[in-house]
Amino acid sequence: MNLAVSLIFALTVVFNPAFLGSTVSTTIQEDVRGSSDHPLFPNRMPGYSISNYQQQGFASYRFRTRPPQAREGKYTRIHYYLKDPKQHPGGLAIRRNYENAIKAVGGVIVHSDDNASVMKVTRNGVEVWAEVQASASYAGRHYFLHIVEGEPMTQVITADAMAAAIDKDGFIALDIHFATGKAEILPESRPVIDEIVQLLNKRPALRVGVEGHTDNTGTPAINKTLSDARAKAVAAAVAAAGINAGRLEAVGYGQDRPIADNRTEDGRAKNRRVEIVKR
To answer: Domain check: are 70 and 186 in the same one?
Structure first.
C-alpha cells in the first residue's frame, strides 16, 4: 500500500470530537513529551517525529488563504521534523497527501499554493480547519500542521458585568465575532448581543455608543468602513430586540484606536472589538 492510499485509508475512521487531544501515538519515533498526531491526521509522513507541539483550548489562527481568514476554537500546532534529509519526500508530496486525506473524509481544499494547503471538513457538527505548511525552503525536513476545531467561546460577559464595567470605566470592550471582511454577526456571538439587550432593559435611562474597531490588516479606509458597518450591525441587532434605536449611537474608528500590539496575532485579535460606551 503506497503512502497516499495508506494515509487516506487511515482517515476513513469516524471523526470523534471527544477523542481530540488524545496523546495516543501509533509511531515508535521519538516525539516531544505530551505530543501526539491529531486524530484528523493520525498517519504522519514516514520518518518524521514531532519536534514541537502546542495545544490551546481556545485561540485564534489566521489561515493562509487569500485574503487570510481567521478562525477561532480549539487550536493545535504540530511541527514535524525529519532526521534523515535523504528521505525527504518534498513539500509538494506532503501537501498533496494531506489534501487527498481531507478529501477522502468529505472535506474540501480552501486554498493551495507552493507553501501551504488550507482545508476544512465538518464532522459531527464541528467545523475543522487545517493548514499544512510544507515549502521548498524547508528542504523537506520540516512541515507544520495548524488545526482549529470551531466551537463557540463560553459566554462569560453578563449584563451585570457590563454594567459594572461601564459604571467604573465608562465603557466595556466586547469580543463580537463577524464573518471575515463583513458586518455579518456570527451566531456564536448572539449571547453577547442578548446581554447588551438585558443591560439596556435593566437601565432604561442609559444611552450608549456602539463603537467598532479593527486591527491594521488592510487599508485604513477599508477598515474605517468595515468598523462602521459592524458597529451599525450590532446597534441594529440590539434595536431589533426591542431597544429604542435612539438610545444607540453607532460609529466605527477602524484601526485608529488600537489597544494592543498589531504585530502579534493575539494583539490583532484584541484590536478587533466592539466597545459599548456610556453617553
So the answer is: no
- The whole-angstrom separation of Cα 176 and Cα 181 is 14
- CB-CB neighbours of 151 under 10 Å: 16
Q: Are residues 32 and 99 in the same domain?
A: yes
Looking at residue 187, what is its pLDDT?
Answer: 79
Structural domain ending residue among the three candidates 133, 150, 167: 150
Cis-peptide into 152, omega within 30 deg:
no
Distance separating alpha carbons of residues 75 and 73, to the nearest angstrom: 6
- Quote the cell numbers at residue 250: 453607532
- Other beta carbons within 10 angstroms of residue 27's beta carbon come to 16
Same domain, yes or no, for 144 and 164?
A: no
pTM for this one? 0.53
Residue range(s) defining the domain that contains residue 194: 159-278
What is the distance between the alpha carbons of residues 23 and 135, in angstroms, rounded to a whole number?
27
Q: Diameter of the chain by CA atoms?
A: 73
pLDDT of residue 8: 35
pLDDT over 90 at 88, yes or no = no
User: Angle CA(52)–CA(55)–CA(57) in degrees, nearest 5?
Assistant: 170
Residue 20 has pLDDT above 50, yes or no: no
**Residue 76: how many CA atoms within 13 Å on its side-chain side?**
23
For a pLDDT cut of 90, what percent of the chain falls above it? 64
- For residue range 66-75, list pLDDT tens digits in order: 889 999 889 9
The pairs formed by 152-161 with CB atoms below 8 angstroms and a separation of 24 or more are 152/188, 153/58, 153/72, 153/188, 155/191, 155/192, 155/195, 157/192, 157/195, 158/195, 158/198, 159/195, 159/196, 159/198, 159/199, 159/202
Q: 141 with 187, same domain?
A: no
Choice between 169 and 188, residue whose per-residue pLDDT is larger: 169
